Amino acid sequence: MAGQRRGFFCGSLDHSLSRRGFLGAAAAGAATFATDMTALNVLQQPAFASELKKQQKRVILLWLAGGSSQLETWDPKPGAATGGPFRAIQTAVPGVQISELMPKMAQRMKHTCIVRSLNTKDGDHGGGAKLMMRGRRDEANVQYPDLGAVLAREMGRVDSQVPDYVSFYFATEGRGFAPGSSGFLGARYAPMELTQSMIPENIRRLADINDLDHAERADLRDLLSKQFTQGRVNSTTSSHNEAYQRVRGLMSSEKLFDISQEPQKMRDLYGPTQFGEQVLAARRLIEAGVPFVRVARAWWDSHGQNFETHQEMVPELDHVMATLLDDLEQRGLLEHTLVVTLAEFGRTPGINASLGRDHFASAWSATLSGCGIKGGAVYGKSDPTGNRVVDGQVGAAELFATIYRALGISPTKNYYVGSRPVPLTEPGTKAIDAVLA
């Protein structure tokens, strides 16, 4: 198993409903939905389902932790000395080829845009992961929120009873390098981090505390909090209070994480792997109104046995991603859901003495599928050996600006840290217009 080849992996020390979505037809169903967020069958109410699907945007990030190889996935170089043993195959989009390890995605390229020209200039696990989760680097006095926290803020509902940001990250590889972070946005937009169980820990009320006791304890906490904050102006305290106020609603969302609620046929489609099950859970969550879900699939850090590792792992990614896109399309969700594949960097074109590929941030690939994206497109180009970008070079900031634009969010929108305006992306950053629908 690739997950067991730890001896070959890097030992580096550097290795957490749109506010507009409930208008018109949705108003009639909102009260029912808020009462019990575990009832996915409310989506069978035609008026509510139609409005929800039409107005609410969401994101699923497939995080390929450790750094997957662009050469064995989205930007193959067959025949080159650096190309490796796998062929390139034609996709359903004329002129676009990807690795033969991805035959299912090759038939679904009409939904997907490949960005082949990322030059992010950070080949360190920790620095690269933070950069590709935030789109920029922290400053000495400013801790920036990551993509999930920003989208929770922009696309979440104030009264939501489901989480705004969920992260599945069970593996140990790289988990400490890319924890979810709400940065200066505060605890209200912090992720629900799942690292051991598909069901959130401590989400259930203790058996020896009845519902009345639980409500009264919440009231007491609220009273003490109000007394503490009286006469004080503190954004951190306010953020924690908002987070606490959502506890009872979040407790009612437990069944959303339980894929046994899905028909066996659907579970079989995604497959029995942990990655497949978590992506199925992600689909359940976004369907119920969660704006952002990250699913991490680790053990891509192939300093040794790169080709064996990718021969095992790429077909799994191919199958699960293709299944997800089909599932979203059939449910009428794909045009409102952005599916992103991303890592902290790619892999070197050069092949080392252990038949592996090392860290490489100079010319690598990511994909965008669904909402707001021009499917079947390829943006940018690397040279024939994959060593450098020769056309359309972009960095993390441009990629993030493109994601925001695809979701209808202005990348130049300002947040404020004190009186300082802080735009969502670095000043002067431009989205990749060529990939936007």
Mean pLDDT rating: 85
Low-confidence stretches: 1-7, 14-44, 48-54
The main β sheet shows up as: 8 strands, mixed
Order of strands across the widest beta sheet?
Answer: 6-5-7-1-8-11-4-12
User: What is CATH's topology name?
Assistant: Alkaline Phosphatase, subunit A
* Structural category: alpha/beta
Q: How many strand units? A: 16
- Share of helix among residues? 25-40%
Tell me, what's the shape?
globular
CATH architect. name: 3-Layer(aba) Sandwich
- Rounded to the nearest angstrom, the radius of gyration is 22 Å
Element-level helix/strand string: HHEEEHEHHEEHHHHHEHEEEEEEEHEE
State the domain count.
1
CATH class (first level) name? Alpha Beta
What percentage of the residues does DSSP assign to strands (E)? Answer: 5-15%
How many distinct helices? Answer: 12
What's the end-to-end separation, in Å?
Answer: 39 Å
Provide a descriptive summary of the structure in words.
- The protein is an alpha/beta fold and 437 residues long.
- It has a single domain, classed as Alkaline Phosphatase, subunit A (3-Layer(aba) Sandwich).
- It contains 12 helices and 16 strands.
- A hairpin with a 6-residue loop joins β2 (88-90) and β3 (97-99).
- It is globular, with a radius of gyration of 22 Å.
- It starts with 26 loop residues before the first helix and ends in a 14-residue tail after the last strand.
